[in-house]
Design brief:
heterodimer; A: mainly alpha; B: mainly alpha; 7 helices
């Protein structure tokens, strides 16, 4: 199946055209900054940094992070198809995907909990200990995703 | 200027140390990517609010993120200098790298504009009202320039030497 993926039109364009790979890599870089940028700011806020910045602000901002995620899911898939067999056999790549899935699931959990806690205690909600714990887990996932992603080329 | 710097760097102890270490380069790349996430993540929130989006946020409160932006920039300045010292011949002649440097300088000038003209009056803004044109200019200018910096960095391996 991964061999077939490498023979598709998209895969051949990304792998062989002059600009296919760099264009997809460029989108992937911008998407990374949006997704990890916004989610890490949110996690640091929930962990107690930046007092005065209302946690509620991260509910609408997270929608932008989701847009970034969609950009990266598409560009990432295009990059993946170009060397699908190599990537599925690369441990760093598999760890990276695991971390991203964890980060996105935790983003959904945090969004729901934040909404609940804001509804209960108002705009300046006290963030519960368990939500802080989840934020720390999320921040660690994104950090690990970046580390594993960089190491794909080296292991 | 870059050329004479290159001549001085090639063969220097720092240059040889970076080239001889297999793991240093990927570790610097990882730090450079963490730095870019902090820099752009913080700026996204600050600049989008400055441009008038997400008005439930107090515009001055977003400035609490500025230390994170500076930490991200500092990490990337240090790792960026080390990249250059490790492989000066490749970077100095690379057009994408040269454009990236120009964009960073422009982004710095834009940041000065923010500190002189926008930041001092921000606390007088009506939180519900659209942002002044000058603030929109600085905010979108910042996002455009830093996105350009990111793109030029990403394209260094693919763009020629002119």
């Amino acid at each position: 199946m991964f061999g077939w993926l490498e023979s598709t039109t998209v895969a051949v364009w990304v792998a062989e055209s002059l600009w296919g790979y760099p264009i997809m890599l460029s989108f992937h870089g911008i998407g990374l900054a949006v997704v990890v940028g916004i989610f890490s700011m949110r996690d640091m806020r929930l962990l107690g940094l930046f007092p005065g910045l209302r946690p509620a602000a991260f509910l609408p901002l997270s929608k932008l992070a989701w847009v970034g995620f969609i950009v990266n899911a598409i560009s990432g898939f295009a990059l993946f198809t170009s060397q699908a067999v190599t990537f599925v056999n690369n441990t760093a790549f598999l760890i990276k995907i695991g971390c991203i899935v964890a980060g996105m699931v935790l983003a959904g959990v945090i969004q729901a909990r934040l909404r609940g806690e804001l509804a209960m205690s108002g705009e300046d909600a006290v963030i519960s200990g368990s939500t802080r714990g989840i934020a720390l887990l999320s921040l660690s996932s994104w950090l690990a995703a970046i580390i594993a992603g960089r190491l794909v080329a080296y292991v | 200027m870059l050329e004479s710097l290159t001549v001085a760097l090639v063969g220097s102890p720092l240059n040889l140390w970076i080239q001889s270490s297999y793991w240093l380069w990927p570790v610097m790349e990882i730090i450079h990517f963490i730095g870019l996430s902090l820099l752009l993540g913080g700026l996204l929130v600050i600049d989008l609010r400055m441009a008038g989006h997400f008005r439930s946020l107090n515009p001055s409160a977003t400035h609490k993120l500025l230390p994170v932006v500076f930490i991200g920039f500092g990490l990337n300045l240090i790792t960026g200098l080390l990249f250059f010292c490790g492989d000066p011949l490749r970077y100095a002649v690379n057009i994408s790298f040269q454009i990236k440097l120009v964009l960073i300088i422009l982004a710095g000038l834009n940041a000065l504009l923010f500190y002189w003209k926008i930041s001092p009056v921000m606390h007088t803004w009506d939180p519900a009202a659209p942002s002044p044109a000058s603030a929109k200019f600085v905010a979108y200018g910042s996002l455009t320039l830093w996105t350009g910096v990111l793109l030029c960095g990403r394209l260094i391996p693919y763009v020629g030497t002119g």
